[in-house]
């Protein structure tokens, strides 16, 4: 008998580039790529020239990081970017011009009308139309709630969101984590936190990426100052929610607050819909929505907290209540790992969606 | 010349009893009584029998704690209670029957229609009508925002509040503070907070008064479970805000969340009014309102945080923005020391108000 020909899979598998492989989200990305079904041919790791030559493990193999150059995108089918806005703004179009579909996790292209902003559980169809060859990944704070809100919107028709965030320090990168850990070393074992400024004096002037001490504190600020006192992070949640849900006139009010949690953003959401809602109906939707875990039984001590949610993929939802004074509004408490669904996971899901389309 | 007669002040000064003098709020109360103008004759310290005989400093003198008995209220003009609800429910009427005006900081009487619920900056007149001889002090979470909201309501007419809290552990008493401090010792110097359940395993089962670990975490729960999934703390903020502001049909939605801060509650507030508002007008009101500090200049890094506010008396307000999609709504971030204005200070202010009326 003639032996069966070698399966022609290997040559047709797409080449993936991970740009920003050494960062906080990049590190989680490599772990996700190692866990997910392996659909990729080559996985090329790209970072700034100072990280070039480092070796990182992905799919159980050591891969050498190459420097970010135009040539690095040679033969790449899909390039995931996890780099600062200005680096994306410069390099994503270069990668796209080299023929790669770019999945970008910066803010550079999210509001570009020619760039779709995609959450695979909510608007997967949007990823197919990409005039610039770029697909944008939403901000981590938007992503921490939007899967749950998308499911409720599909059923009830969302009209208004009032959101308050409890954002983890890893949203500010590894520097944020180091800052919190360093400060915890200074306040643990003390009786600080009861007199004006005592935490600030103990922590000193170096508060890392934050504008105030973060140990034993909360900071009502994330991002840069925009018009009329809004922070960039607050406007991102508003504008991105509108674009992803396809409701351009959605009313959205957001206040972003940083809390001393390492990883996993939490949000309180007051969501007003077109018609009356019930908790039972909302439970029914949330308990079957892809990517959502309903964890809502306070009598049994069941509500999500970052300590339980960190390291997991879904959006966790608890504390579902109907507003006492408005039968069209629900209150929810939502947690999502800002480095997984809030960053690397959603980017990987978009890349997998596009890989399936290209194949 | 005949010498002037001795001033008759001393005998007419009212006798004050502090019931619960050894607790978290009681301790702050003794410090406030030592700092405020001394209008009191005797200050009698009352606590549970197991604390009787302890000596505590007030007005620079050591005072022996006496046990809570009916006789302990003999000759008392005003009795401040800072004890659990059931102790207040039992003993406040006994003190009132002995002729004392009771200022009670428990939840036992707050919603009693025959008991006024008083914030001296907002509704001082209410303290004069007290059919049961009892005046109630609001919950610490309500108090952390209500002075600011009262000032805005007087100008703009409040219609709706959507509130999310960032509540300090001392709201759960000294046990809450000890629990956070013990847990910080266990997580400082580690790389915990990045894997599901790693903080929980490090902290162990003893989470003190909380239902989850509080170090490196936030917990969307405060109080006891009430109907339809609401917590008692959330309903208190709703019902007390309505009563204090005198707006029985005010729409109020609250989600209460505990954060790893020792003392000072923070809240985000989405406040909708009868008519259009502007940030300039709101700033004007808040900058002159008694008991309020406006600290709102993000360009200069100015917004309140618990680390700065702890140990101070006022309600601090920052991040004032007009809702982008609703010209009748403001967003605010508010901080108040939950043991001072949120507890001891407001109680002392009510007692001083009544002392002035009695004299």
Integer-rounded radius of gyration of chain A: 21 Å
Tell me about the biggest sheet of chain A?
A: 6 strands, parallel
β-strand amount of chain A: 15-25%
- If you average the pLDDT of chain A, what whole number results? 95
Gap between N and C termini of chain A: 31 Å
Active site (chains A, B): 140 (acyl-thioester intermediate), 265 (proton acceptor)
Domain Semialdehyde dehydrogenase NAD-binding (chains A, B): 15-130
Binding site for NADP(+) (chains A, B): 22-25, 50-51, 170-171, 338
Protein name (chains A, B): Aspartate-semialdehyde dehydrogenase
Structure characterization notes:
Two copies of one chain form a homodimer. By secondary structure, chain A is an alpha/beta fold. The first copy, chain A, has helices at residues 9-12, 24-35, 85-97, 140-156, 174-187, 198-203, 232-245, 279-288, 306-309, 340-358; strands at residues 16-19, 43-47, 55-58, 61-64, 66-67, 78-81, 101-104, 134-136, 158-166, 251-255, 265-273, 292-294, 315-322, 329-336. Chain A is globular, with a radius of gyration of 21 Å. In chain A, 31% of the residues lie in helices and 20% in strands. In chain A, helix 2 packs across helix 10. In chain A, the strands form three sheets. In chain A, strands 5-2-1-6-7-8 form a six-stranded parallel β-sheet, with helices on both faces. The two termini of chain A are 31 Å apart. Chain A is built from ten helices and 14 strands. The mean pLDDT of chain A is 95. Chains A and B meet through strand 9, helix 5, helix 6, strand 10 and strand 11 of A and strand 9, helix 5, helix 6, strand 10 and strand 11 of B. Chains A, B: Pfam families: Semialdhyde_dh, Semialdhyde_dhC.
């Amino acid at each position: 008998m003639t032996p069966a020909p070698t399966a022609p899979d290997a040559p047709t598998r797409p080449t993936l580039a991970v740009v920003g492989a050494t960062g906080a989200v990049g590190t989680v990305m490599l772990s996700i790529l190692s866990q997910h079904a392996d659909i990729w041919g080559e996985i090329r790791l790209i970072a700034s020239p100072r990280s070039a030559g480092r070796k990182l493990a992905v799919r159980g193999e050591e891969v050498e990081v190459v420097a970010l150059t135009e040539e690095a995108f040679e033969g790449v089918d899909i390039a995931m970017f996890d780099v600062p806005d200005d680096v994306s703004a410069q390099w994503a179009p270069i990668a796209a011009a080299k023929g790669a579909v770019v999945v970008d996790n910066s803010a550079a292209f999210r509001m570009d009308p020619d760039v779709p902003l995609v959450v695979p559980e909510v608007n997967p169809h949007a990823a197919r139309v990409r005039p610039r060859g770029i697909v944008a990944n939403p901000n981590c704070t938007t992503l921490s709630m939007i899967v749950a809100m998308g499911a409720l919107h599909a059923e009830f028709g969302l009209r208004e969101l009032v959101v308050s965030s409890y954002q983890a320090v890893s949203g500010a990168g590894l520097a944020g984590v180091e800052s919190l850990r360093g400060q915890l070393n200074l306040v643990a074992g003390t009786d600080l936190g009861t007199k004006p400024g005592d935490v600030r004096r103990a922590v000193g002037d170096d508060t890392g990426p934050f504008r105030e001490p973060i140990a034993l504190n909360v900071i009502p600020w994330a991002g840069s100052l925009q018009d009329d006192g809004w922070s960039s992070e607050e406007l991102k949640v508003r504008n991105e929610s509108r674009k992803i849900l396809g409701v351009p006139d959605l009313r959205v009010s957001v206040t972003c607050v940083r809390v001393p949690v390492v990883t996993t953003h939490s949000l309180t959401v007051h969501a007003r819909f077109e018609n009356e809602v019930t908790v039972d109906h909302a439970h029914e939707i949330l308990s079957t929505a892809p990517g959502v875990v309903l964890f809502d039984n306070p009598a049994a001590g069941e509500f999500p907290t970052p300590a339980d949610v960190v390291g997991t993929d879904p959006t966790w939802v608890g504390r579902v209540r109907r507003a006492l004074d408005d039968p069209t509004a629900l209150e929810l408490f939502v947690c999502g790992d800002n480095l997984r669904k809030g960053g690397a996971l959603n980017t990987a899901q978009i890349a997998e969606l596009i890989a399936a389309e290209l194949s």
